[in-house]
Specification:
The complex is a heterodimer of chains A (371) and B (659).
Chain A: H1 2-18, H2 24-44, H3 49-70, H4 74-98, E1 108-109, E2 114-115, H5 117-133, H6 142-160, H7 165-181, H8 186-206, H9 209-219, H10 228-242, H11 253-256, H12 268-300, H13 305-329, H14 347-365
Antiparallel strand pairs in A: 1-2
Helix pairs in contact in A: 2-3, 2-12, 3-14, 4-5, 4-6, 5-6, 5-7, 5-13, 5-14, 6-7, 7-13, 10-12, 12-13, 13-14
Chain B: H1 2-7, H2 10-45, H3 47-55, E1 59-64, E2 71-72, E3 78-90, H4 98-108, H5 113-125, E4 132-135, H6 140-149, E5 156-165, E6 179-181, H7 184-189, E7 200-202, H8 205-209, H9 211-215, E8 216-217, E9 219-225, E10 231-238, E11 241-242, E12 245-248, H10 252-262, E13 267-272, E14 279-285, H11 291-294, H12 299-307, H13 316-319, H14 329-338, E15 348-350, E16 353-355, E17 362-364, E18 372-374, H15 376-382, H16 385-405, H17 428-434, H18 441-447, H19 458-469, E19 480-484, E20 492-493, H20 507-522, H21 525-529, E21 540-547, H22 562-568, E22 569-577, E23 584-590, H23 596-615, H24 651-655
Parallel strand pairs in B: 2-12
Antiparallel strand pairs in B: 1-9, 2-3, 3-4, 3-5, 6-7, 8-11, 9-10, 12-19, 13-14, 13-23, 15-18, 16-17, 19-20, 21-22, 22-23
Helix pairs in contact in B: 10-23, 14-16, 14-20, 15-20, 16-18
Classes of the chains: A mainly alpha (371), B alpha+beta (659).
Chain lengths: 371, 659
């Protein structure tokens, strides 16, 4: 019995390694991106090999998870979806009750490691929306839109309350993209956006003072020379001084002289822009666009509604990372904790992104075979 | 499921999805184009501007921590100030190998595990060019040894800073409390911007509860740095805003008198101005030296304090709970009047024993044979148990606890210090939470004389006496009286309006209880002690001698050996004066005293004497405390006294009742 189990595991592992069922163009894009990320991190982290090694280790872990998840058929994922969603939302409630972490209750201490349950929702949220819409008649009716709205709002509110506005935004976007892709009528989209827009003054009322300060600081960075204003000014100086061709790898004075805060995590893209210039920025944006496009391509080829919506939503929410982080670094959006995908240093984000791509690979492996 | 699928048009949906995906992708591309156009704006259009700023970018901001507000008593006697000291700081940016550095440095200057833990935590939260404190309050010896070895440790420096000092040592340890080093847990919850460069935070007492007032706002300076990040010169300074100075309502002379009156015997005393809730004295004996805690207490000192059987670290005045005994009787009598179950002239026959119908166990009076026929005034004067057994039964436990809860018995008084105990007010609800058995009538009976489940803190009782003495108008007890910024002309009073309407509906009710409590001093337990002798005002009061253990036999206690009694009793005394216009009320508790009036009474009297001396006038007057600003505490003449320009407003405006 143990023998056969052992053999089975070995056969499974061999299959993963010798005949990986992955989409090569997407894997290639991710590989290049990870390389760019490590090269940038080496420079931004003051040539610290320990830092780069740690990040590379996480990429390897993420890649292993990606390969494992790519073997799980989407139908199995679909069956698990309600439980995964309910479980991750329950963890959010637990964190709200007894979490720990500076200024924000978002960490859960498992003894061996600490992790943020909100990170799970980045994946379980689009899964849940796709699961709900899968058996329904599409485009969705008002009733279905309302249910999906509720499915999004509950965890998003819990995350926003932690307070972690960046992740709340990503989670909301992932769910909303699934709804958009399901063919929700344009006029209905207009109505919802109008209603949400009308809520903004109300939401402003509920924001924490420091969150309001961040928005106000963005409008007038000089007002806060020690905190976020400093981040915004120094980040823009880094980007702007890079020019068209950049100062060259490892030549970022802003980062080297420590004018740029958080230069390995949230503001690493400023270092990239300073060293590689507008050429580098355009290049990496093309790479991101290629990855998103490839995700949507995989989604179009998917076998059923669940897979389609899920793959599309994961791909499109990738854009939100890029846009929010890139906008923050360039002083166009307020400072929120959203990393630049695969480039920012940080474990959970890299791993959870690759897990998401693992789902895409699985959807690709189970695509429609003809038509 | 199959049925549901059949109505789905998979092919149509697929086409629909395809259209949406294409539209979505186009929208995202537009978003990325928008982003790229922003980068073009910065990197092409405004490139020259940012290149200039980048090359000229040699200016960094550096935080300057604010000086902590000072703490004074009501007359400007200094209770907490800042004195210069030296600490070891590390600039992480200049250190190649931090763990090697710490190991080598530890051989020159001993580093504790606490120092290292906090340092590591703070390291993670600071920018690399911000220097992080490693070890506080260096000794001369440590400074010398480091100076010799300095060349070995680039990036490490001895830096002057302000540390906290409590000149009166233990006298205010429980009220003022102390600051101590910010630790790893504090860093989790503190706003890093507000605490940049700050190494200490209020840990107990007003240092903790008024942290926001005392801390201040950090400033910053813009310093020019060279290519290696080393400071060349300071370009611009935005000074920090120092914390506000805090004036307590406590008079240090009364505090000192109260502390001395205990003569080292464990206990607590609280004096409150019934007209406004201001705490005039609050002592807990024994006490400790708060200066020990400021820069990290040594293990030996700390275990000596925690292992001391006198438990000096506990603020008995608000954390210690004790059965109140007879001190609750005046409040119960007032409840009888207010609830209409007693008229002042109603009498009860005290025979020495009170028995519930159908019960063999009886409840006794203090005196064999009882006090005979007593009315309310006489019952308070003689502390006649039988009168209050009856009254408690007639009120019933529900009315009794509802009334008593209005004096904050069984709940926090709401003083501006953290960590008050709630005590226990006997009630059905309380018992239901703690026991499966129901409420017995006998428990109501003994609740009437402050025994049974009853537990109160000295502060609760002082608050209750003050509320009564102030004709029933409740105020939250306050030790913080006023704050003053360094730049302010005048101190700003902290408002403390009454916390509710008066508890007393008829002035005549107050008069009856007052008469009873005056009789305690002139004819009851206070008479033999002569508590009012030589005092210009009438004092009204009540003693309480509570059993530390419940009485198991009905035998009268004939053992008059005071050493024996002292192990059995908690001695209380509560009083206020002048009886016709109460201006001060006080409560004293001795953890081990023989009798309330004999042992705790004189402590209250000494507090009143100090109050009278502070008043500086023997003539009865309505004008509240007006104390010369230069007054210092006897025996502490070397303590610096605030000069007149920074004094709080004249006491009359402080004491002028509610704003």
């Amino acid at each position: 019995m143990i023998e056969t189990m052992h053999v089975r595991v070995r056969r499974f592992m061999r299959r993963i390694l010798t005949r990986p069922r992955i989409d090569l163009p997407l894997a290639f894009g991710l590989f290049i991106l990870a390389g760019v990320g490590l090269v940038t991190l080496y420079s931004a982290g003051d040539s610290s090999l320990a830092l780069v090694g740690g990040q590379a280790g996480r990429f390897v872990l993420g890649a292993i998870l990606l390969l494992l998840i790519s073997r799980i058929p989407p139908s199995t994922l679909r069956n698990w979806t309600p439980w995964l969603y309910a479980g991750s939302t329950a963890l959010l409630v637990v964190v709200a009750l007894l979490g720990e972490g500076r200024g924000a209750n978002r960490w859960l201490n498992l003894g061996v490691m600490r992790f943020q349950p909100s990170e799970l929702l980045k994946l379980t949220m689009p899964m849940m929306v796709a699961w709900y819409l899968h058996p329904r008649k599409l485009p969705p009716s008002w009733k279905d839109i309302a249910v999906v709205g509720l499915l999004i709002a509950i965890p998003a509110a819990l995350i926003a309350k932690q307070p972690d506005l960046g992740t709340a935004l990503l989670v909301t976007a992932a769910g909303a993209f699934a709804l958009f892709l399901s063919g929700m009528a344009w006029w209905r989209i207009g109505v919802v956006i109008g209603a949400v827009g009308g809520m903004i003054p109300v939401a402003w009322h509920f924001l924490h003072q420091y969150q309001r300060d961040r928005v106000l600081t963005m409008l007038n960075p000089e007002s806060d020379p020690l905190g976020n204003g400093w981040h915004i000014i120094q980040s823009q100086i880094a980007v702007g001084s890079g020019g068209v061709f950049g100062k060259g790898w490892q030549q970022s004075t802003q980062s080297r002289l420590d004018f740029l805060p958080e230069h390995t995590t949230d503001f690493i893209f400023a270092v990239f822009s300073e060293e590689f210039g507008l050429i580098g920025v355009i290049g990496i944006m093309l790479l991101y666009a290629f990855i998103i496009g490839r995700c949507l391509w995989i989604a179009m080829e998917a076998r059923d509604t669940y897979s389609r919506l899920l793959a599309g939503a994961i791909g499109m929410s990738f854009f939100v990372y890029v846009f929010v982080n890139g906008g923050m670094v360039a002083g166009m959006l307020p400072v929120v904790g959203v990393p630049m995908p695969m480039i920012s240093y940080g474990g959970t984000s890299a791993v959870s992104l690759l897990v998401g791509f693992g789902v895409l690979m699985s959807i690709h492996a189970n695509r429609k075979m003809h038509e | 499921m199959k049925l549901r699928r059949s109505i789905k048009d998979n092919r149509g949906e697929s086409a629909q999805f395809r259209r949406r995906a294409v539209v979505g992708f186009v929208l995202l591309l537009l978003g990325l184009c928008l982003l790229v156009s922003r980068y073009m704006l910065l990197q092409v259009t405004r490139h020259d501007e940012f290149v200039t700023r980048s090359t000229n970018n040699s200016v960094k901001p550096r935080a300057i921590p604010p000086a902590r507000g000072l703490i004074y008593d009501r007359n400007g006697v200094l209770l907490a100030d800042n004195v210069p000291a030296f600490r070891l700081e590390v600039v992480p940016d200049k250190v190649q190998d931090m763990s090697a550095l710490l190991a080598q440095l530890g051989e020159v200057v001993p580093l504790g595990q606490d120092d290292l833990d906090t340092f590591q935590k703070q390291l993670q939260q600071s920018r690399r060019f911000d220097s992080v404190p490693l070890k506080l309050h260096l000794t001369e010896d440590e400074i010398d040894r480091f100076a010799v070895n300095r060349w070995r440790f680039p990036g490490v420096d001895v830096v002057p800073y302000l540390t906290r000092r409590y000149p009166l040592s233990g006298l205010f340890a429980h009220v003022v409390g102390y600051v101590s080093r910010i630790d790893a847990n504090d860093l989790e919850r503190l706003d890093p911007d507000r605490y940049k460069g700050t190494s200490h935070i209020g840990r107990s007492g007003v240092e903790r509860s008024y942290e926001d007032v005392l801390h201040g706002t950090p400033g910053y300076e813009l310093v020019e740095v060279n290519a290696d990040g080393q400071t060349q010169r300071v370009l611009e300074t935005h000074p920090p805003i120092p914390g506000r100075n805090l004036y307590l309502s406590i008079d240090s002379r009364m505090q000192k008198a109260a502390d001395a009156a205990f003569d080292g015997r464990p206990g607590a005393a609280v004096a409150i101005d019934p007209r406004n809730g201001q705490v005039l004295a609050m002592v807990s004996v024994p006490t400790f030296d708060p200066n020990l805690f400021v820069n990290g207490i040594s293990k030996a000192d700390y275990s000596a304090l925690t292992n001391d059987p006198g438990k000096p670290l506990i603020n008995r005045a608000m954390k210690g709970v004790y059965p109140p005994g007879s001190t609750v009787k005046p409040f119960l009598a007032l409840g009888g009047l207010e609830d209409g179950v007693r008229r002042p002239e109603d009498t009860v026959l005290s025979t020495g024993e009170f028995c519930l119908p159908g019960q063999s166990r009886c409840y006794r009076d203090d005196e064999r044979g009882g006090n005979g026929t007593v009315n309310m005034v006489r019952a308070i004067e003689l502390s006649t148990n039988t009168y209050f057994y009856r009254l408690a039964l007639d009120l019933g436990i529900d009315r009794l606890s509802a009334w008593m809860s209005r004096f904050s018995f069984g709940s926090k008084t709401g003083i501006d210090l953290l960590g008050e105990s709630e005590g226990i007010l006997p009630s059905r609800e309380w018992k239901a939470k703690h026991s499966k058995a129901g409420w017995y009538p006998g428990e109501t009976v003994i609740a009437g004389i402050g025994q049974g489940y009853w537990e109160v803190t000295p502060l609760q009782l002082a608050h209750a006496v003050a509320t009564f003495a102030g004709h029933g108008v409740p105020y939250l007890p306050r030790v913080g009286m006023a704050t003053k910024a360094v730049t302010d002309e005048q101190a700003q009073m902290l408002p403390n309006p009454p916390s509710g309407p008066s508890l007393i509906t008829k002035a005549s009710h107050w008069d009856v209880i007052d008469e009873g409590m005056r009789a305690v001093i002139t004819g009851g337990t206070g008479k033999t002690v002569g508590l009012n002798n030589g005092f210009p005002y009438l004092i009204a009061g009540k003693s309480g001698t509570a059993e530390r253990f419940s009485r198991t036999s009905e035998a009268y206690n004939t053992n008059k050996n005071t050493a024996y009694l002292a192990t059995r009793h908690r001695a209380w005394f509560e009083a206020y004066t002048p009886s016709d216009n109460p201006q001060i009320s006080a409560v004293a508790l001795l953890e081990a005293g023989a009798w309330g009036a004999q042992d705790a009474g004189p402590i209250v009297r000494k507090i009143f004497d100090a109050w009278l001396a502070a008043k500086g006038s023997a003539a009865p007057t309505d004008t509240p405390l007006a104390i010369p600003a230069t007054a210092a505490i006897p025996g502490n003449e070397d303590i610096p006294v605030e000069d007149a320009s920074t004094m709080p407003p004249p006491a009359s405006s402080i004491d002028g009742g509610t704003p």
